[in-house]
Amino acid sequence: MTFIEFPIWQPGMIVTEARANSAALVGRTVFRATRDANQSISTSASANPDIANALSWETIGVDDLGGWSSGSATRYTCQLAGWYKIQAKAGFNASVSGTARTLGIFITGGLAPGGHFRTATTFTNTTHTRDGFLTALLGVGDYVQIAPGQDTGGALNTATGGIRPTLEIEFARPA
Q1: Of 167, 168, 147, which Cα lies nearest the Cα of 158?
Q2: Residue-range domain boundaries for the chain
Q3: pLDDT at 117
Q4: Would the pTM of this model clear 0.90, i.e. be above it?
Protein backbone atom coordinates (compact mmCIF):
# COMPACT_ATOMS: atom_id res chain seq x y z
CA MET A 1 0.00 0.00 0.00
CA THR A 2 1.37 3.42 -0.94
CA PHE A 3 0.89 6.53 1.19
CA ILE A 4 1.65 10.07 0.04
CA GLU A 5 1.55 13.53 1.58
CA PHE A 6 -1.27 15.76 0.43
CA PRO A 7 -2.75 18.82 2.13
CA ILE A 8 -6.40 17.66 2.27
CA TRP A 9 -9.05 16.95 -0.32
CA GLN A 10 -9.42 19.91 -2.68
CA PRO A 11 -12.10 20.61 -5.30
CA GLY A 12 -11.10 19.06 -8.62
CA MET A 13 -8.44 16.83 -7.03
CA ILE A 14 -8.09 13.50 -8.79
CA VAL A 15 -8.73 10.56 -6.50
CA THR A 16 -5.76 8.24 -6.84
CA GLU A 17 -5.07 5.02 -4.98
CA ALA A 18 -2.23 6.65 -2.99
CA ARG A 19 -4.40 9.66 -2.04
CA ALA A 20 -7.29 7.44 -0.98
CA ASN A 21 -4.93 5.27 1.11
CA SER A 22 -3.48 8.35 2.78
CA ALA A 23 -6.93 9.81 3.51
CA ALA A 24 -7.90 6.47 5.07
CA LEU A 25 -5.11 6.93 7.64
CA VAL A 26 -6.94 9.76 9.40
CA GLY A 27 -8.01 8.49 12.82
CA ARG A 28 -6.16 5.21 12.40
CA THR A 29 -3.62 3.78 14.86
CA VAL A 30 -0.40 3.49 12.83
CA PHE A 31 1.88 2.29 15.64
CA ARG A 32 1.40 0.33 18.85
CA ALA A 33 4.17 -1.15 20.97
CA THR A 34 4.60 -2.57 24.45
CA ARG A 35 7.49 -3.23 26.80
CA ASP A 36 6.86 -6.70 28.21
CA ALA A 37 9.96 -7.25 30.37
CA ASN A 38 11.12 -5.02 33.22
CA GLN A 39 13.35 -2.09 32.28
CA SER A 40 15.41 -0.41 34.98
CA ILE A 41 14.71 3.32 35.37
CA SER A 42 17.39 5.33 37.17
CA THR A 43 16.47 7.75 39.93
CA SER A 44 16.83 11.52 39.91
CA ALA A 45 16.35 14.02 42.70
CA SER A 46 13.55 15.79 40.84
CA ALA A 47 12.13 12.60 39.21
CA ASN A 48 12.15 14.36 35.84
CA PRO A 49 11.97 12.09 32.80
CA ASP A 50 15.38 11.55 31.21
CA ILE A 51 15.98 10.52 27.59
CA ALA A 52 18.63 8.13 28.95
CA ASN A 53 15.69 6.11 30.33
CA ALA A 54 13.85 5.95 26.99
CA LEU A 55 11.80 2.78 26.84
CA SER A 56 12.94 0.07 24.47
CA TRP A 57 10.00 -1.56 22.67
CA GLU A 58 9.83 -5.36 22.44
CA THR A 59 6.40 -6.21 21.06
CA ILE A 60 5.24 -4.29 18.02
CA GLY A 61 1.53 -4.87 17.52
CA VAL A 62 1.00 -2.33 14.73
CA ASP A 63 3.53 -0.55 12.50
CA ASP A 64 1.58 0.33 9.37
CA LEU A 65 4.07 2.91 8.10
CA GLY A 66 7.30 1.06 8.98
CA GLY A 67 8.58 3.62 11.52
CA TRP A 68 10.15 1.20 14.04
CA SER A 69 13.47 -0.63 13.74
CA SER A 70 15.05 -3.07 16.17
CA GLY A 71 18.32 -1.17 15.63
CA SER A 72 16.72 1.91 17.27
CA ALA A 73 14.28 0.08 19.53
CA THR A 74 13.40 3.17 21.62
CA ARG A 75 12.20 5.20 18.61
CA TYR A 76 9.23 5.47 16.33
CA THR A 77 10.38 7.46 13.28
CA CYS A 78 7.80 9.41 11.28
CA GLN A 79 7.48 8.24 7.66
CA LEU A 80 4.63 10.55 6.60
CA ALA A 81 4.42 14.20 7.69
CA GLY A 82 1.30 15.11 9.59
CA TRP A 83 -0.38 15.60 12.93
CA TYR A 84 -0.20 12.61 15.26
CA LYS A 85 -1.92 11.74 18.53
CA ILE A 86 0.62 10.19 20.88
CA GLN A 87 -0.65 8.14 23.82
CA ALA A 88 2.05 6.94 26.22
CA LYS A 89 1.92 4.89 29.42
CA ALA A 90 4.56 3.67 31.85
CA GLY A 91 3.88 1.26 34.67
CA PHE A 92 6.22 1.15 37.68
CA ASN A 93 6.82 -1.75 40.03
CA ALA A 94 5.79 -1.31 43.66
CA SER A 95 7.95 0.88 45.89
CA VAL A 96 7.25 2.82 49.07
CA SER A 97 10.12 5.20 48.35
CA GLY A 98 10.02 8.52 46.56
CA THR A 99 7.34 11.13 46.04
CA ALA A 100 7.00 11.30 42.24
CA ARG A 101 6.59 9.17 39.13
CA THR A 102 6.83 10.95 35.78
CA LEU A 103 6.60 10.32 32.08
CA GLY A 104 7.99 12.39 29.23
CA ILE A 105 7.18 12.34 25.53
CA PHE A 106 10.29 13.28 23.57
CA ILE A 107 10.32 14.35 19.91
CA THR A 108 13.64 14.11 18.10
CA GLY A 109 15.53 14.07 21.39
CA GLY A 110 13.79 16.99 23.12
CA LEU A 111 10.97 16.98 25.65
CA ALA A 112 7.83 17.93 23.72
CA PRO A 113 6.00 21.09 24.87
CA GLY A 114 3.24 19.84 27.15
CA GLY A 115 4.85 16.39 27.12
CA HIS A 116 5.82 16.11 30.81
CA PHE A 117 3.34 14.23 33.02
CA ARG A 118 3.86 13.90 36.78
CA THR A 119 2.21 12.20 39.73
CA ALA A 120 3.34 13.50 43.12
CA THR A 121 2.13 11.56 46.13
CA THR A 122 3.16 9.35 49.00
CA PHE A 123 3.48 5.91 47.48
CA THR A 124 2.36 2.68 49.09
CA ASN A 125 3.76 -0.71 48.17
CA THR A 126 1.65 -1.06 45.01
CA THR A 127 2.34 -0.73 41.32
CA HIS A 128 1.69 2.66 39.76
CA THR A 129 1.04 3.91 36.24
CA ARG A 130 1.62 7.31 34.69
CA ASP A 131 0.17 8.11 31.29
CA GLY A 132 0.16 11.08 28.98
CA PHE A 133 -1.34 12.24 25.72
CA LEU A 134 -0.53 14.96 23.25
CA THR A 135 -0.99 15.85 19.60
CA ALA A 136 2.15 16.83 17.69
CA LEU A 137 3.10 17.89 14.17
CA LEU A 138 5.79 15.49 12.95
CA GLY A 139 7.92 15.79 9.84
CA VAL A 140 9.48 12.88 8.00
CA GLY A 141 12.46 11.74 10.06
CA ASP A 142 11.21 13.14 13.38
CA TYR A 143 11.12 10.45 16.03
CA VAL A 144 9.09 9.81 19.17
CA GLN A 145 10.43 8.31 22.40
CA ILE A 146 8.94 8.05 25.85
CA ALA A 147 10.95 8.06 29.05
CA PRO A 148 9.75 7.60 32.62
CA GLY A 149 11.27 9.21 35.69
CA GLN A 150 11.20 8.51 39.42
CA ASP A 151 12.80 9.57 42.68
CA THR A 152 13.03 6.46 44.88
CA GLY A 153 16.75 6.96 45.54
CA GLY A 154 17.64 3.86 43.50
CA ALA A 155 16.70 2.17 40.27
CA LEU A 156 13.06 1.16 39.86
CA ASN A 157 11.82 -1.34 37.27
CA THR A 158 8.93 -0.78 34.92
CA ALA A 159 6.01 -3.10 35.51
CA THR A 160 4.89 -6.05 33.42
CA GLY A 161 1.49 -7.59 32.77
CA GLY A 162 -1.55 -5.40 32.32
CA ILE A 163 0.19 -2.18 33.35
CA ARG A 164 3.25 -2.64 31.13
CA PRO A 165 4.54 0.43 29.26
CA THR A 166 2.72 1.17 26.01
CA LEU A 167 3.12 3.61 23.15
CA GLU A 168 0.28 4.15 20.69
CA ILE A 169 0.39 6.64 17.82
CA GLU A 170 -2.58 7.64 15.68
CA PHE A 171 -2.46 9.62 12.44
CA ALA A 172 -4.70 12.62 13.15
CA ARG A 173 -4.55 14.52 9.84
CA PRO A 174 -2.21 15.66 7.08
CA ALA A 175 0.19 18.51 7.81
Answers
A1: 147
A2: 27-174
A3: 92
A4: no
